[in-house]
Amino acid sequence: MKTQIYKTKKLGQYIVFACVVLSVTFFEACDVLDKKPLDNISDATVWNDETLIDADITGAYAQTTVFVNEADNVVSANKSNFFAIYFINNVSDESKSASNFAGNAYRFKFGNLKIQGGLLEYWERPYNIIRVLNELLERLPNTNVSQEFKQKRIAEVRFLRAFNYFAMVKRYGGVPLITKVQHKSDPESELRPARNKEKEVYDFIISEAIAASKELPDVIGADDWGRPSKYAALALASRAALYAGSIAQYGTVELDGVIGIDHNLASRYYQESYDASKEIVSSARYALYNDDADKVKNFKDIFLKKRNSEVIFARQHDGSDKEVGGAGWCYDYFQCPYPNGWSNGNHDAPYLEMAEAFEYKDGSPGKIKEEFYEKDRLVTMDELWQDKDPRFFATIYTQGTQWQGRTLNYYNGLILPDGSVQQQGSYEGVLANGEQKYWVACGFGVMKYLDESKNNGDGSTAGIFGSKQDFIVFRYGEILLNYAEAALALGKTSEALDAVNQIRTRAGIAQLTSIDVDKIRQERRVELAFEGHRYWDLRRWRIAEDVLSRNMCGLKFILDYTTRKFRIQKVEKIDGATNTPLFRHENYYFPLTHVRTNQNPNLVENPGYK
User: Fold this and answer.
1) Where is the RagB/SusD domain (predicted)?
2) Domain range spanning residue 387?
């Protein structure tokens, strides 16, 4: 969107009042939006001016940080996401954080999600946003702006409000559904509302998304790119209903429905997800991006080419927004290999298990052959990764990857002609260690979304920090996988198989001849890797207690001086001998925390937190 973000003094007062009513801390939602107060503009003028109304809506978009970053609260009191954009990967089984600022992520990962909360919080911010959106919904019908403008913006606001509630319900379960502007004169029960049932929140999200889809435009023009279309709203319904169906199928109802959904409702939600997904598919508005015969480059370009055929809804970036109140985008600077990334680079290090999740082209499992680990065995990188799913090379970089005209070297140790291993210095001009400083972190880095042409050594702030790739919130590949999962749950096996095979054909690997839930989960794991889905998927399937409570591995490379081949070693317990990841049963829902329940005694805490 090109609308400038600014606020009037009058509107700023409304937002401050919202913070008082909700008994929450007022942070960037006011600070960012009130940067350019227009003190002399009357209330009537504001609500009858399309540009000023758009400023309100644009501010709400800017503050919906979860479009890009699920952990914007992790680093400091000002909620900067400067170091946190990849932490959603680190708390899953995808990767290990190699950042010096990963303390909260590690406490969270190793079972220390306690009553005080911590990483991935999203409570005060969305209620500030929802206050603004509720006021827009109350005011817009009575303004003197055009009917077309009203219709579009009301639908847009409903979409945005539903998205914020979805970000909350997937964290906490049932939350208070506030759908009108609160006033100090309201009854105490409305000023300090109790939690709605989880089912009620999901029903609200899905119904609002569907309603918005009927009013939003089919196509978004260039000037409005970044606003939701009809199909973005349907994509939200597709995702939210799939989550609700999973929770009904695999979860347990507790607190009289505040968390959990009745098992008998699973099919209903799967049907709603299926219907929303099918409407997107049948529209033929979107397609799997498949413009390049080179399958590796093609998959990379999904995330680098703006507005391509697969993108349904994306958060725009032009390289100038390093932080922006937690909604900024400095991806390259932390994900790039050394020396292109900040400090030692490679701050997000995929586990060996994530690398092995990518199958071979013929559809066989992607695990490294056991004979390659034999002590006297030397292998080339071509032998190690030969015929691997092209998405592996487009998603992960490792020893031997070509980057900006050079070869990345992750090896640690040099096998000399006499068979001994040199650990430091060099031998006959060959370094004993590769230049990638965080080789011990796993032996891999995240390639997805990286812009290889970007110069992260540029002396300007924007050049160093700001990335220009749009962050995709909804894409067609996810919709096909949602469609497949919902279809399978409804017994539509052939449709599920076809949807998954479309993904695999585009990837360049063998089609499946049969389908089951594990195969769909496997396909989601690799297709959507490092896009912020995996952690939430494991939770909604209720398998996180198993998957996220395992010791993970890395891969060590040792260079042979004579042959220039490598000895490889599996590094067990890569997170540390005493740091076993732990996901407890209660962690399927985050704690509301003592702070929030003390402020509002009507909020019941989630089970397991004391």
Assistant:
1) 310-609
2) 330-458+552-567
